[in-house]
Amino acid sequence: MKKITWKSPSNIALIKYWGKHGNQLPNNPSISFTLSNAFTTMELQYEPKSDDGKISLSFEFEGKTNQPFEDKIERFLIKILDQFPFLSAFHLVIKSENSFPHSTGIASSASSMSALALCLCSMEQNETGNLSQKEDFFQKASTIARLGSGSACRSVYPILGQWGYQETISGSSDEFAIPYSQNIHPIFNTFQDAILIVSKKKNLFQVPQAMD
What we know:
Layout: E1 2-15, E2 20-21, E3 25-26, E4 30-48, E5 56-61, E6 64-65, H1 67-79, E7 90-98, H2 108-128, H3 134-148, E8 160-163, E9 177-179
């Protein structure tokens, strides 16, 4: 099996997008900080199979089979098969793990979908020779990540990412994010986001029931 590994972080929005339209397109532009220590590490292994036009996949999350996650990834790969038509000729083994607990409000969908998009673009580069230019590679990775999770498109870039067309921002687009570096004050390079994890359990706090 051939193997590809990417590590991609989550992000936290300074300017949020409020809703989407069409095929995962933003209603307004957004800007986010890319987090450095809250990330997903994803490994994609693949080997040839008969090209029957179908996706063949097995998925592990943090060392264990996770059927709901596998089903979600399979539906996504079917959705983007027109972007990566060679996928049906391979059996895929995807292994994913986070540096932070899942479902704790740190946008694991952004880190995981951007990591997956980066793996898929590397696979295309390896198997077809496409995406040899760095800008083309990350632009497609951002586009594919957007189709899985809107904010994920910003996570393929370090420090700051901008998504959504804005006439005053050169290269901005609704289709993909771009690295944002225009007129950034040096103080923004000192910003930190602190995450306090009190438990890895889900539903730790229950909302009290109203009394009659």
